[in-house]
Structure formats: C-alpha cells, structure tokens
Amino acid sequence: MSLQVVSPTGGIAPLLRADGVSLEYGGTRATHDVSFDVYRGDRFVLLGPSGCGKSSLLKAAAGFIKPAAGSISINGEEVRGPGPDRIVVFQEFDQLPPWKTVKENVMFPLLMTKRVSRHEAAERAMHWIAKVGLSGFENAHPHTLSGGMKQRVAIARALAMQPEVLLMDEPFAALDALTRRKMQEELGRLWEELRFTLLFVTHSIEEALVVGNRILLLSPHPGQVRAELNSHQFDLASAGSAEFQAASQRIHGLLFGADDAAAGAVAPAQAGAYAERADKRSMDSRVRGNDGRGVAP
Ligand SMILES: Nc1ncnc2c1ncn2[C@@H]1O[C@H](COP(=O)(O)OP(=O)(O)O)[C@@H](O)[C@H]1O
Ligand SMILES: [Mg+2]
C-alpha cells in the first residue's frame, strides 16, 4: 500500500495554514470551510474547475480579501492584509506597469519596502533578471516582450522580494503550450535551486501534477475540499508515463466523478505512490508526502 498515515501533531508547524476558510462575495459563498497546511519548501497546488474559489483562496492568503469564517495564518500569525512576505504572480500579462523598464519593474516593490537602498535594489534586480533568463532585457519595456518574458519578469519581481510564500494564480494559463511547458520547467529548475515555498493555482490536472508536490482538489459552488494528494514523484519528464496518466485519471475522477466509485477506478497503489486525504475532517489520519518531512509514501 502506498499510503502512510502520520499524526498532524508530528512536529513541524506549517508555514501557511488555512483553517476552515469560508469566503463570501455579498453573501454568496465562494468557498466553504477550506483547510490546508503549506509547509516550507512545499509546491502546494490548489486544483479545481473554474469557479471553485482558487483565486479567492489565493487572494485571501495574499491578504486582499478577508474570510467570512475561519482564518489564514502565516508562521502562526493571522493574515490581516497584504505584506512583503506573500507576493503574487497573476495570469495577466498587464501586471507590469508598462512605463517602467524590466529592471525598474523588478526594483519597484523592493524600493517600496524601504528596506534596501536604490543601489542594492538595482543589484538585486539584475541578479533576479539573470536568474529568469532575461539578461540583456533590463532596459526593455513590457510591451516589447512576449507573454512568456513578461511572466518571467513577474517571477523575478516576486522572487527578488524573497517572500515567505510565492503565490501564483494560473501564471502560465495564457501562454501557448510550448512556452507554458518551458515555464513549468524553469519554475521547477528555480525551485530546485532556491527551494522557495509555492502556493500555485491551476485548473489543469497535468500542470498540477508537474508543478506540485501536494495537490488540494476543490469542488465548486461553493469551493470545498474533495481530497488532498501527494504528487512529488511527477515532473515534466514523467508527464507521458502510464503512472502519470493513471494519476491524472484518478484526479479527474475525484474532481468530476459522480461518486467515489468512479473516483476509485484507479487505486492509489496502481496510480503510483501518491497518498491522499479523502476527507479533511479525518485530521488524525492526515497523510503526508516524503518531500522533505521524512515520511515515505
Ligand atoms: N469580485 C467578486 N465578486 C463577486 N463574486 C466573485 C468575485 N470574485 C469571484 N467571485 C465568485 O466566487 C466564486 C469563485 O471565484 P474564483 O475564486 O475566481 O474561482 P476560480 O479562481 O477557481 O475560477 C465564483 O462563483 C465567482 O463568480
Ligand atoms: Mg481563478
């Protein structure tokens, strides 16, 4: 059996915790009682169909909207507003002020914090621009860049802030398939090097498996937790494999299957070593991956 159950009180505290989060817009519930824990170094993915509240949860984590019930905390402190410890990369290419150059865009939030001098901000900006492969484009304006390059700038700008958690809301969804793949690969490469903590939103099952080490499945209207999966063993290289296909089918079943019979079409053992949490209330039997927390799946 590929599942291993561990106690939630087993030691390490989560970096980011969503605890029974319900989000509402004018009395309409967007998410209901959503709980999850993100640990340092996780690539935690919120996956679900359009309208299940992924963006709303990300915005709540960023501190842009306040839960109607429940809470989000970071390092044990309740999130009460935006902060430099949580930086968001959005899907939209227009997230970069067009009148600023690439370098000025990356420097801008650093200067806003007033924690670094202009000289240091410029140095850091050049460092991160190189890290995302944009050396030579420092003085270009966003409108002269491709969509993929604009997203690289947004990633450089976010990483330059060295946030506790990098929040990404479908950052590659508007890119063509090849560029999207390339960006997923480069995000993986950056993570291998830097081991930042990522909270990543997508509606693509494949992208969730490629990007994440843990995946929270959400069902819509209102968004609720369906399951939590451990997906650390998948990457772009394994994307065509039978194991990957099986995992992806099982996720599809969990998200869209009429009942658990459909979801159970592929057993976890067959689908590979990914663990799942079928019901968020069974907190005692929370399952954890082996991604840095020493528990083998
Ligand atoms: N600003 C808003 N005002 C009113 N309703 C909203 C707003 N933003 C999102 N919603 C609603 O909340 C639900 C979740 O939306 P969202 O978080 O954008 O989902 P997702 O990102 O998963 O597609 C949807 O039903 C959506 O219509
Ligand atoms: Mg969204």
Automatic annotation (TrEMBL):
This is ATP-binding cassette domain-containing protein. SMART domains: AAA. Belongs to the ABC transporter superfamily. Keywords: ATP-binding, Cell membrane, Membrane, Nucleotide-binding, Transport. It comes from the Bacteria. Residues 276-291 have a biased composition (Basic and acidic residues). PROSITE patterns: ABC_TRANSPORTER_1, ABC_TRANSPORTER_2. It comes from Duganella flavida.
